[in-house]
Amino acid sequence: MATDTLTGPAILGGTTKTRVCKNFIDGEWVESVSGNTFEDRNPADTREVVAIFQRSNKADVDAAVDAAKRAFAKWRLVPAPRRAEMVFRAAEILIERKEDHARDMTREMGKVLKETRGDVQEAIDAAYYNAGEGRRLFGPTVPSELPNKFAMAVRQPIGVCGMITPWNFPMAIPSWKLLPAIVCGNTCIIKPAQDTPLSTFNLVQALTDAGVPKGVINIVTGFGSEVGTPLTEHPTVRAISLTGSSAVGKIVGATAAQSFKHCSLELGGKNPMIVLDDANLELAIEGGLWGAFGTTGQRCTATSRIIVQKGVYREFIEHFVARAKKIKVGNGLDETVEMGPAVNENQLKTDLSYIEIAKTEGAKMVCGGNRLDKGEYQHGWFLEPTVFIDVDPKMRIAQEEVFGPVVSIIPCDDMANAIEIANNIEYGLSSAIYTKDVNKAFAAVRDLDAGITYINAPTIGAEVHLPFGGVKATGNGHREGGIGAIDFYTEWKAVYVDYSDKLQKAQIDRPE
Ligand code: UN1
Fold first, then answer.
1. Which pTM does this prediction carry?
2. Catalytic residue ranges
3. What is the Å distance from ligand 1's center to 15 Cα?
């Protein structure tokens, strides 16, 4: 395969040559200071190099931060509605390029085309939502306790922000971070996951084509220790937003605290779906299959525990397993395929090791469990949809995040027992309950210890205008999406205007 050096990623039209994508710093496509690169390979067929990216280090991060700092001086003064108009235009551009970007994404991370179209759509949704926020950015105006005095609070940008994003939603998650950040007047450096930088390039290209000026968004590609660490340590960077594992979140949080950065951590999940005896069983089965095996189980929100009440337990398993066995696994570019590969060899190894752990613990495997590596599968990282039943909630397979197409089915006695099992876990991102009883549904909303609860729908499928995030080891109290992101990317400034023409003393000048 011939290799060509492009000034930027070829975003439209096919090319037979391997793309070489440079870093994007100060509006220019530049090579890494070290000159080193790495390959982005297709997990469905590792013979294909999707693109080559710069293997960057601290020197590249420093250059990007300098550019972002210079750009901030001007960008913060652009009126927010004008900044937002650029984001709106980017949404329109992404609509035109949706199919190309979805295909790039399927090639770089494996999920099926329907889902990668959904990922691009999520970025479009985020763009429309945040474009609207440019005309709001509301703050409170309150009566002063003193006469002839005006009191209000305004939102101000923070400054230079760093984003570290994962491979599972390679355009949606960068959009959740970049779009509110720039509408609020910040400038950014993004380090996309090394498995999926191309989708971030495609998003940033749309924003650049929509008029976002140079230096406002910079991309530095590479590995966590070489790019993520210097970005998190850099004193000029005032906010860090990470979506990743809880283990990495602990390190990023501790590092960011050293220079008092705003820090938003969106971490792991072990999301429960409860099925009560009175549930619409067909709906619950369909939802469970989508929640567990959609995106090859590689969502923070994936349904990884299905807690089923005893009265319907056997029937649920019988139909769920029969359907799971029929899921068509393969290359996501084939429209008939329902589940793509694991993103890379390491993830596949993790999945397989958890399958072994579960077997050793005594969980009963009734579906899947094997790597697929023959015939059409021989060049990819494919795994069968895997189901364990009769799982004890204390087993590691029921406690730890796998991030693969592996689901544990756990029996429960009643609603109280189901909630106890659901909550007795380190994480708290998403949760779901299937029941026709409105009283039980609302009690579950109150009692499930998670940032998201679905009634009669699986644990996946959050929309961009509501808060996204979780409790306990899933995060540190911030939310993405909706107004939560605006809160994260702004600093409040309280403003008092005294028009009395005399010194007035708050808390002291009071009528007796
Ligand atoms: C993630 O898995 O990190 O709610 C994000 C969902 C998607 C986003 C998932 N809209 O499943």
1. 0.96
2. 266, 300
3. 31
